[in-house]
Amino acid sequence: MIGGFQDKKLELFWLEDKRRNIPINIVNVLRNKLNMIAFAEVIEDLRVPPSNHLEALKGKLEGFYSIRVNKQWRLVFKWHGNYAFNLRLTDYH
Questions:
Q1: What distances in angstroms separate CA 79 from CA 16, 28, 52, 84, 85, one per listed residue?
Q2: Dihedral sign for Cα atoms in the order 76, 79, 84, 85
Q3: Exposed (0-12), middle (13-18) or buried (19+): which is 75, by Cβ within 10 Å?
Q4: DSSP bridge partners of 88
Q5: Spatial separation of the C-alpha atoms in residues 80 and 49, rounded to whole Å
Q6: Nearest-CA neighbor of 84 among 50, 13, 34?
Q7: Which structural domains are found in the chain, ordered by start?
Q8: pTM (2 decimals)?
Q9: Is 77 helix (H, G, I), strand (E, B) or coil?
Q10: Which of 33, 35, 45, 61 is most buried, taking the most CB atoms under 10 A from its CB?
């Protein structure tokens, strides 16, 4: 489930379908990935499909996880209990 956002533009996209600040080429995939997070009961649920590339991050992002939206974009978040917190959309390139 989604417990909160760090990224305001992502929150507006999720709650109000405001796409203004979201790259047009990822809108549909991003919506699907957010739905996966919203329906996940445990972090392991996000291992499927394998194209998510669920990853526990290291270094200064230790404690965060990421899943791929596409080759360029990632959803980064913390997971606690049954909730994803501090969700943000990150450009990896």
A1: 23, 23, 16, 5, 6
A2: negative
A3: buried
A4: 76
A5: 21
A6: 34
A7: 8-91 (3.30.2310.20)
A8: 0.95
A9: strand
A10: 33
